[in-house]
Amino acid sequence: MVSTGEVLAEKSGSSSEQSQFDKIEQPWQIKGGVTLLGVGLIGLELWWFLFSKTRAKEARRDRDIQEVEIIVDGGYNPDRIRVRVGEPVRINFLRKDPSSCLERVIIPDFQKAVDLSLNRRTSVEFTPEEAGDYSFHCGMNMFRGAIEARQSS
Ligand SMILES: [Cu+2]
Predict the structure, then answer these.
(1) What is the DSSP string of 65-80?
(2) CATH number of 57-150
(3) How far is the CA of 103 from the centre of ligand 1 (A)?
(4) Cα of 2 from ligand 1 centre, angstroms
(5) pTM for the complete prediction?
């Protein structure tokens, strides 16, 4: 058994002994760093993927319509909503952002292009007939969001 202190001492001692390997030691460290960075990025991507999945806000179901509010302020919040296939959807966009960029919202798959008045709720209604991800975006396609339509279970 060796204590942590002994292991560290051994390591620092060995580095001077292996001075003939100094030339390959540095590339190895760089490789290690790149690998760590890669693994870190994959982890971040995975985390982001899972995080954005859970961030999808489920539409609230009423008797005959499923409804969800999206706040338009420097983007869309939430920018991912989940709805059920075959049931009418009403999205209430509450625009708080005065920039003209977010003035108009477009949902191409449902042929919707709607101007949003400032500090007002503007409703957009449609019925997704097929499961899938439908995107929506601002007039200039700079801010985007998605509507996940799923079969009701
Ligand atoms: Cu825009």
Answers:
(1) -EEEEEEESSSEESSE
(2) 2.60.40.420
(3) 8
(4) 62
(5) 0.66
